Every structure is written in C-alpha cells, then in structure tokens.
C-alpha cells in the first residue's frame, strides 16, 4: 500500500479555480443531501504570540473519502523565529472503504481556494443575472480569491473596494487591475463603496457591524465570508430583516456565523432562514426569485469543502503522474 | 522545512518497550501535572462490515509537541477485499512552537505499544513487590503486549490464562513460552485463573462482567484494559467497593471506563477514586500501602500516551538517521 505525497507547489499547479468551484458545489450538494458526516472540529489554542491549530474531519459518502485537515494560523513570530509561515496546513485523505491513508498533501492553499470558490457558487445561485459591479469590504488575500473565483462565473465590470489600511487598498487595486484588467475604484468611505454594489463581499476580521442596512440597495447579493467564529461580525443585523438568508450549514451559521447576530437580537427567527446553498443547488429550494430581493450567503466554511477539493487535487495528481509515493505500511 | 516520514517497519525498530514505558510515565505525569491538552476525540463510524476511524489530538506542554493519531479498526473485509489490515494508523507530529509538521509516521504499532506499557507503569506503582503470578483474562495481541511490558518491570514466574477460544489460548501459551520462557497454565475456568493472580490483566472486548468479586484474593493488582468505551465491561462492579481505584484519566474513566459501572450502580462515589496514576508517579498520592489491598488500574487510553511515545520514536529516528525527509512546504 502506497500513500501519495503532494507538496504545496504541486498542489498549487494541480487544480484550477474552476475545478475548485465544481468541487465546492459537490460539497454543498452532498452536505445538504445528507451524504456528509462532519463532526465538531478540534481546536488547540497556544499562548501568545502563538496562534491556533484546528483539526477538521469530513466524511463524504458520495466520494467515499474521509479527510482530515490540520491548519494553523496566527503564529506571528514564525517567519522571524522559525523561518516558516505564520499559518500552515496539512491534509490526510483516507479511502473510506478501507480507511487506508491514500494521500498526505500540504494544505496551505486549500482553505483559501475553497473559501474563494464558495462565494462564486453563491453568485451563480443568488446574484442577479445582470450584476456587474462588485464591492469588496476587506482587501486581503481572501478578497483576491473571491474575485478570482467570481470572475469565472460572471462578467465583472468594476470593483469598488474599501479597507481600513490605505496601503492594503492600493496593493489590492494594483494586483486586481494587473491580474484581471478589471478597474478597481477605491472608495473614501464604506458607505460609498456599498452603495455601488450589485454584489457585496465582506472578508474582514471584523468584530462589529461594518455595513449598515440603509446602504444596501435592493437586488444586492451579499457574500459574507469573514464571520466564521463566535465574536466576529461584519453586517448590521438589520440587513437580515427583509433579506433572503442562505447558509452554507444552518447548524454552523446559527452557532457562529453572521446569521447568529440577527437571531440573537430576535430580528429574525430560525424560520426566516431560507435555505442551505446545497438545497438550492439540489433544486429543493428556489434561489433568487426577483431582481429586488437582497440575498445573503453566510459562509462559515465546512470540512467537506476541504474533502471534495482535496480529492480533486489527488485525482488530478494520479492522472498527471505528479507527486511522490511512500509506503508507510 | 522538511518533514520526516517513518514507515511501520522503521517505527518497529526505532523504539524498545522499555522506552515506551518511560514515555508513558512521562505522559501520565504531564497529564496529572496539568501540562496536557487533550480534547474530545473525533470518531467516524462506517456502515458494516466496515469499522471505525478515530482522530485523537494531544498537546503536551512539557515537550511542546502536538500529536494527531488517526486510527482505524474493525474493517473485517480489508484483508480480502482491499489487501490491507483491518485496522491501520497514522500519526502527525507538530512542533508546538510553530505548528510546523515535523513528522508523519505509521501508527499501526503505536496504540498496542503504549497500551501495553500502561499496565507495566501501573504494576511498578501498585502491584505487591512480591508479586510473581499473572493471570490473563483475554489472550489476544494486547495480552501479549502487557506481558512484554510487565516482564521488564518484574520477574514473572508463571502466567495463568483464560480466553473464550481454545485455539487463541493455545497460541498464546506457545507464543509466550517461546518468547519469554515463562510457563503458561491454561485454566479451565475464569475463576480458577483469577484465584491464582497476584496481578490480573483483563484485555477482552467484554460487554458484561467477566470476573466476580469473590474470586479476587487480597493483595491483587488489577490492570483493566479492555473497557475504553461505553457499553464495555470486564469486572464485577463489586470489586470496586473495597479496592484502591486508580484511573489513567478520571474524567475519561468515569465517563467510559470500567470505573463507570460501580459509579452508575452507586457502589462507589466519585470520592472513592483514589488517584490518577500520574498523581502517584508525581508523589502527590500514595500508591499501594499494604500487601492486602486490592488495587485497580482502569486504563481508557489517552492521546498524550501517543504523543510522548511518538515523540520518542521521532527523536530516535533523528539520532539514528532513520527515515525519509519530504518537503511539503
């Protein structure tokens, strides 16, 4: 029995964002179709200036793969003190038919890729067909990933961007205009940026409302990425009152997603959550029904997205003879 | 950054049982000394005839290592259908200072080794100094491991053994007499075997009491290995009424160990649990205090035993230039 080893560099050239979008769609469908086991993750918090390492396990019955992703982040001293990035990742894949370890791959790129793809999947299902303008609140790596993925599913005409730091903003503009040729307009205020949006993407580490309800125009689709644990928040909970609310996982979003805030403030009840994105992809619930509704996709991130994306990387590696085999057994 | 890969064959020759005993002692001391984080494990149960795969994470502050062991078992069809064992294991070690992945090793041997060592550590702390005779209820692989480890910490003069299957019994006798030169007397009944014991070791998959209280003579030390999850049981709960009860982890043993049964039947209260084994090793609580008391060591197994044992294997590999380096990053 041999296990395939894949380095970060190999992972990077083994999958396209288009394939990640396909894998994440499969993940959502499998999840909402009851084909997924995804137990609570294990987290270990290290004392400052260290960060956290999480272990996330997912079992997908449709591909018969069990995945385990270990991912660390927030180790601020790492580059200087240890010569390694401040966050790293590793993924194990098991053939669920035998539980043989079939692959160990670097997982540094995986979370960024599958999270980027999640926004694009929601855009296909929930954004207006005539959407042209995207607003980014937050201009870090994940904002770039969102643009990379969404540009594959629609024609983006312009991007309005805001972030706290002028340097980050300027770098974002240069990078995006260079890579995609899409004009980026840097806004002086969040309000100015949000008012332009056909699609609003929030990817900050916000811990309080950044986007007020009165700024969001009818027909906007909101991709809420930043809030993936308790204590984080990006949106005014009032936005949820009349919006069509879609979750990646209802159980996760009501516990630690953006959806928790309006629930906690009794602005909405559980019945006001329209659907999981997978239910819409499976045709069990409608997506957008008119050009005026505000749709919100609350993405907390799921182990099963790692599972299907890593499986695709593994299959591509086998097909293209990339990687190194090692016999642990 | 490079990660060390170790195969099963390499792991097997990189560590002696004596070193495992030392590593498990360190684990118990670190655990009871408050130097360990060991979150609830993640378990995935596959449909029959498949088994289960568990993911156990442990962080040891004394060695600054975070370990993750994935171990599967009960895949009955594996040898015929997939050409692999019915249980396998993999271990990841992270340097907790940076969370860099420093080692991926086969974990097939680890659970057996560290569980075998646990009995020996308890024998040092709790068995009578003049103990000579061991009784094994259950004669599978783990019974062999127990003998292998205990033979390093005391002089075993004879072994009395019982198991349900005559074939297994006979094979155990032949193996143990061949490997250790210790005479093995196969008992016709459990009672006959138990009555001989200075040290009683139970390593079955029992789901009900196998050993009655009236059979256990004063001064016996009991190593209760088999009960590591809810629904399992090997001992008559009455044995606990007047015994000195020692747990590997009190929180685990009262939840899913042999100790749960007498607690559940109100034969004992929480205050009747004398100590964790680590507290005795740290000198915070006494071990055996006279030759008449019956001592029970309830071992449910802890991630931190995997941690310290795997770390020792890793250090030995580095020292002896064994293994293969791979650059994931």
What is the element layout, followed by pairings?
The structure is a homodimer of 329-residue chains.
Chain A: E1 3-6, H1 8-14, H2 17-32, E2 36-37, E3 42-45, E4 52-60, E5 65-73, H3 78-82, E6 89-95, E7 100-106, H4 110-126, E8 133-137, H5 141-150, E9 158-162, H6 166-180, E10 184-186, H7 190-195, E11 199-202, E12 207-211, E13 221-224, E14 233-235, E15 244-247, H8 250-256, H9 260-264, E16 273-276, H10 277-281, E17 295-298, H11 303-319, E18 324-326
Helix pairs in contact in A: 2-4, 2-11, 4-5, 4-11
Family (chains A, B): Belongs to the ornithine cyclodeaminase/mu-crystallin family.
InterPro entries (chains A, B): NAD(P)-bd_dom_sf, ODC_Mu_crystall, ODC_N
Protein name (chains A, B): Ornithine cyclodeaminase family protein
Describe this structure in words.
2 copies of one chain form a homodimer. With about 325 residues, chain A is an alpha/beta fold. Chain A is built from 11 helices and 18 strands. In chain A, helix 5 (about 140-150) links the parallel strand 8 (about 135) and strand 9. The mean pLDDT of chain A is about 95. The interface between A and B is large, with 50 and 50 residues. Chains A, B: GO terms for molecular function: oxidoreductase activity. Chains A, B: Belongs to the ornithine cyclodeaminase/mu-crystallin family. Chains A, B: This is Ornithine cyclodeaminase family protein.
